[in-house]
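Postdoc handover notes: sequence design on the structure in folder B. Input tokens:
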């Protein structure tokens, strides 16, 4: 059954309908202010993206992300919150969320995040991402032989693509930098995730820093 546009479910206490005039239409398939009901809507409606606030009754946004991820549903979760503390962000990522934005983000930024998450990307508010990556890098042991053992399966081009992913570049930006098509980059990213047994680009970013392939500020 063909579906036009991107279908989302909003789980928020004061939902807003994001929209702009570019790209596939974003269709709100369902709305709720309750975390447990959000999980049920995700199961029943199978939207491309579930947008969940952190502060929800019964199940908070992080618990919603964990529940949706654990069921193996083909639904990506984008978290919205008033607060962007490091522990909250790390908890959301660990729960399987593919995106993390502040509620006061401009509508255009929210729309861009929805599209990125729906197509397999990962989005974290840039200022928050910088803090998180620095914390992750500082907490990790010296790379030593870790880089070789974990990244040996990648070709030189796939490592190059992984470096760009870790620096937050989109597929289009990587394609321009490497002078290849965006489809080629999508294929490389897919191979990287498959070979390294990673769920999404967020995990790829963490691994790139964990192995020392990319260093904060580099």
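Designed sequence:
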């Amino acid at each position: 059954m063909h579906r036009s546009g991107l279908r989302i479910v909003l789980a928020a206490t004061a939902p807003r309908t994001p929209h702009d005039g570019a790209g596939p239409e974003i269709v709100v398939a369902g709305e709720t202010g309750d975390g447990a009901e959000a999980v049920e809507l995700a199961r029943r409606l199978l939207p491309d993206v579930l947008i969940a606030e952190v502060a929800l009754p019964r199940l908070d946004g992080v618990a919603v992300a964990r529940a949706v991820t654990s069921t193996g549903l083909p639904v990506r979760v984008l978290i919205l919150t008033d607060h962007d503390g490091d522990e909250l962000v790390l908890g959301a990522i660990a729960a399987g969320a593919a995106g993390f934005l502040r509620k006061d983000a401009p509508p255009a930024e929210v729309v861009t995040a929805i599209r990125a998450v729906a197509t397999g990307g990962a989005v974290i508010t840039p200022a928050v991402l910088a803090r998180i990556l620095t914390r992750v890098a500082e907490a990790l042991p010296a790379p030593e032989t870790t880089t070789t053992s974990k990244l040996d399966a990648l070709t030189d081009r796939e490592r190059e693509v992984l470096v760009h992913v870790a620096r937050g570049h989109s597929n289009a930006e990587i394609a321009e930098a490497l002078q290849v098509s965006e489809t080629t980059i999508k294929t490389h990213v897919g191979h990287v995730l498959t070979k390294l047994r990673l769920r999404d680009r967020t995990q790829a970013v963490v691994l790139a820093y964990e192995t020392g392939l990319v260093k904060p500020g580099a």
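Context for whoever picks this up: The longest helix spans residues 126-139. Don't rerun without checking with the PI first.
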